[in-house]
Amino acid sequence: MQPSLVNGDSTPRARVQDEIRRDIIFGTLPAGTRITEASLAAKYGISRVPVREALRALEVEGFVESKPFAGSTVSEIPVDDADDLFAVREALEAATARRAARRAAAHFSSGGPDSHWWETRRELAAILDEGDEAVGSGQVELLPELNIRFHLGIAELSRSSSLTALLRQIAGKIEWLYAADVGSRGIRSWAEHRGIMAAIDAGNAQAAEQEMGAHVHGSRLGYLSRFTEKDG
Amino acid sequence: MQPSLVNGDSTPRARVQDEIRRDIIFGTLPAGTRITEASLAAKYGISRVPVREALRALEVEGFVESKPFAGSTVSEIPVDDADDLFAVREALEAATARRAARRAAAHFSSGGPDSHWWETRRELAAILDEGDEAVGSGQVELLPELNIRFHLGIAELSRSSSLTALLRQIAGKIEWLYAADVGSRGIRSWAEHRGIMAAIDAGNAQAAEQEMGAHVHGSRLGYLSRFTEKDG
DNA sequence: CATTGTGAGATTGAATACAATCGCCTTATG
DNA sequence: CATAAGGCGATTGTATTCAATCTCACAATG
User: Fold this and answer.
1) The pLDDT of residue B63 is above 60
2) Cβ contact A84–B75 (<8 Å)
3) Do residues B172 and B63 make contact, with C-beta atoms less than 8 angstroms apart?
4) Does the C-beta of A48 come within 7 A of strand D?
């Protein structure tokens, strides 16, 4: 299995892992909550073994902290790290966009896209359409999930499992921040996705990198302004 | 337990996790090797349960890939991602250095350093001394481990568990690359650590960020030059 | 009064046992 | 001969059981 933000629900362990992560991100399990394996096992109707495995994974993902024989607690929401996480995300997603565009450019000269590219690209098209429809019908609450799927899709196009894994980790934290502090993202941000996608399709690595960087930078500024506005 | 590059060996699970990671990084378990839980359990004299937990964690760390009911294999060494990983690391470590310096500056105005800062700072001093001694006596083979500990120590000073966790993940990959391709790092690189430490101690956030960025950038160029030289 | 030791209860860590699934090889069939 | 169906061995996923450790309350002691 890939370390994923949303697993395929193929095993109880994966389901529980997704469910716990979700409960943490959306506040059902607040920061600092003590988590006992037995209670989770009872809640999901399974034994402690898959629960333990899920907790070990969530620990590496940064959502849970554990000490031997002392149990697990929900991590603190990384509000103090928000700006730095966005900064890292800028570098990270600039790289994924650049790589994706390079891969597209390579397709022009050699044969054509392979099945992996084609499949991912098709899913991205669907995501973009879904997002536009959500914007059109005013269902902005669908955007956060679609937004993550778009950015992870671009990472998938980059064909770098290292970068994709890092983005998953950062995206999880940023989703956590949004869920806790500012709610859904803006509509204007969504519209920029088409431009990024076009740059990648055109094989223009420089434009893809630049547009993705600006896009993430805009999100960063938007997040910070809302957050400080909320504070002041 | 913290998701760590080197756990405290407090439980068999943590020991096995460190051991497997080490075997992967240093090539004892080559990329693509199929890993069966029973063989690992036999090798380390424990049952499959802690082995499974270690594998779930290593999966999120990116060293192992698994599919349900199909088993685990050692991931590919991320050679293609090297330059992008360094780019992300630049942004990441610039942030940790900046935060560490800010925290030091805060100590000047308010009372003094807390125990966490003091403890970490003391360990960093020891690491710097050890590294200098290793350089002096020509034992450059000790530098990679000390190098990781230095950079993780700076991250610890930043007091951001998110950034520290991300650096652990990236550091693991970069260590993997070095072990596989170019051997130990240069001596000149080590000497730059003192300057970074001094900038942090002085509370100069701008200088700390700038020096750390240049330091990582130098590592990046050094890695790439050796690698391409080896290729051509 | 603060501190240290101790014991019970709760909780985690690991071992064993069993069920579910996959991969491959055999075999029947057009 | 190519190919699809089915069964068997190997391996993973989960449940159950027991051992090891921690937490916390409470008492003994300086």
Assistant:
1) yes
2) no
3) yes
4) yes
